[in-house]
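User: Show me a protein chain along with its predicted structure.
Assistant: Here is one chain, sequence first, then structure tokens.
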Amino acid sequence: MKKKILIPTDFSKNAWNAITYASDLFKNKECSFFLLNAYNATMHSRGHLMKDKAEMLSFETEKNKSASGLANILEMLDFRGLNEKHEYHIVSVKDDPLSAIQSTIEKKDIELVVMGTKGASNYENKLFGSNTINVMENLRSSPILGIPLDARLVHIKEIVFPTSFKTHYKRRELVHLVEIAQLQDANICVLHVNDHPELTVEQQENKQLLEDCFEDASFSLHHIGGSDVNSSVKRFVESRGSDMVSFINRKHSFLDSIFSTPMVEELGMFSKVPLLVMHDSKY
């Protein structure tokens, strides 16, 4: 069965990089890629008749731009050289990005969303665009792999998985992380950040559960001291040249401030390192 992957695009360089990164990441796997563009009418004018006519013209313009942009992507992929294991489908939807992604996931039975971390209209000094943050924070029906503009896939050797060992894990929450590690023959670095390396009985049990979940992949256990989890993760990733960071976005995660403005500015590693965001299976 082909893996179904959704890639939203706004036709920016970052969105194109996400498409090529995903294609290379899963080059040895049978995949169906769904390239999604969400558009909306943008013009407004005074008066009901004038407004209706202007919005209709705007709708047709945006609809045509969406169809043309998606067709251009298919041409670019063809020029790049298609993988016989991959097939591409285009989806053009009049909706906001989050709603379009959610509806496409449901209609197409999508397993993974891959998207650029910045869009065409985002400021240069922002590592994450507003649409990306909105999707990563609110989309809970699929894991999301965020790809920075500067990320290039040569070979993933190491994926960092920060944890406090304070919550229990389930295999179904981690299946995509394990799959990527297997496909790339990568090692998962389970990183415990805490000033006190000793674990409680409950943490020991959760640690054993996590080890069981990773039994089909290569993994190693690491501890780093520090009370500031986010900066400690950043320091660890940069010191080792890790290739990806992954975590489960629980409602009360110890990394739940990762998308706040100060945190995004602090986590400069995400200008080059992809981020795999998974979700608590209860939601």
